[in-house]
Amino acid sequence: MSPEARARDPYLVKSVVHSSQLLLAFRTAGEALPLREISSRSGLPKSMAFRLLYTLERCGMVEKVGENLYQSCLRPFKQKLYRLGYAAQGADYQFSIDVSRSLQRAAAAEGIELISLDNRYSAKIAQRNADLLVREKVDLVIEFQTDENVAPVVAAKCREANIPLIAIDIPHPGATYYGANNYEAGLIGGRYMGRWAKQHWHSEVDEIVMLELTRAGVLPRMRLTGMLAGIKEVMPKLDGCRISYLNGDGRLSESFESMRRHLRMTRSKHILIGAINDASALGALRAFQEAGRTDSCAIMGQNASPEGRAELRQPGTRLIGSVAYFPERYGEDLLRVALDILNRRPVPPAVFVKHQLVTPETVNHVYPNDRLFEMTLV
């Protein structure tokens, strides 16, 4: 029953409805939850959730097991088993692989059927996959595709089929957005680039190059806008500095070729490079290495991908940092948002991930398990 229908039903006892919403927040036996998580899962204000918890505790239906931890004394209600559709960005793109694996783990843990497809970084295939998921009559679609021009098409297919949609990283009309806070991630990287240039180049920057992913549209480009703003915040005298935009399509090979062509035309001695992702950052770095001009660049990536982290560990690397998005953690959070939508709990229009700067000095602290994983492959 929808919230609107509940509001019109004169026979419903609202306090019982709210209590059931609260008890549904406990999904597994023995699960201990803090008040904030119970409020988030149930969609109830913290003050109301606290009063209900107090009452249910007095009635023996909830137990307080810590200063701010609660357990249900009842067997968890059996939730409806959902079928979710997931269209991945591409199986050859590490960020997408990490998102897919985390989502598959989370779905398996919740006993939810996940129909997974691969968009293969193709606008045409993304549309075909959307049609397939609609025909499968999934309860909700999680879409990860890069092309801004295809987003309205995919969104319309889901809307016409009355299927809720979550869009990862690229906004889709009417969909719940999940992913990067692009401008904030850019600011984090840009501020560090500015500090690095002040320390190592005494603020002498001849050129700033931004490696774009043009077809992804305006929102991902905000990473680059944020980087520029962050650099200029630290070094305000750079207003007259030359700024170049190159389209690397978010890929190593295309970024390598774009930067290689650019290096044939520029003789700048100190170049700051902001890349849309680590693949582009590494492509640019390889171009500077090929040209024998590595010392003239300082590069900031985005995503802190395994390849980027491996480069950050190289002695003397000119990849000075990357902003982490933690795609390996996306799955559990995406599933929580999906279940909130399907259970008609309040969900904001945009759910942002947390970002953290990773540098050669901090990479082993932020990702300490990388070394263990590498050892298992030897």
Description:
The structure is a single chain. With about 375 residues, the protein is of the alpha/beta class. The protein is about 45% helix and about 20% strand. The protein is elongated and about 75 Å long.
Layout of helices and strands, plus pairs?
Blueprint: H1 3-8, H2 14-23, E1 32-34, H3 35-42, H4 46-58, E2 62-66, E3 69-72, E4 83-88, H5 94-110, E5 113-118, H6 123-135, E6 140-143, H7 151-160, E7 165-168, E8 176-179, H8 182-201, E9 207-212, H9 218-234, E10 242-247, H10 252-263, E11 271-275, H11 278-291, E12 297-303, H12 306-312, E13 319-324, H13 330-342, E14 350-352, E15 356-358, H14 363-366, H15 370-377
Parallel strand pairs: 4-5, 4-6, 6-7, 7-8, 8-14, 9-10, 9-11, 11-12, 12-13
Antiparallel strand pairs: 1-3, 2-3, 13-15
Radius of gyration, whole Å: 24 Å
> Which fold name is given in CATH as the topology of the largest domain?
Rossmann fold
CATH class of the largest domain: Alpha Beta
For CATH, the homologous superfamily of the largest domain is named as Response regulator
Quick one: overall form? elongated
Distance between the termini: 55 Å
Q: Given the helix and strand composition, which structural class is it?
A: alpha/beta
How many domains is the backbone divided into? 3
Total DSSP E strands: 15
Parts with pLDDT < 50 across at least 5 consecutive residues: none
Describe the sheet with the most strands: 6 strands, parallel
- SS summary, helix count: 15
Helix content: 40-55%
- Give average pLDDT, whole number: 91
Fraction in beta strands: 15-25%
- The helix-strand sequence is HHEHHEEEHEHEHEEHEHEHEHEHEHEEHH
Shape-level CATH architecture of the largest domain = 3-Layer(aba) Sandwich
Give, in spatial order, the strands making up the sheet with the most strands.
5-4-6-7-8-14
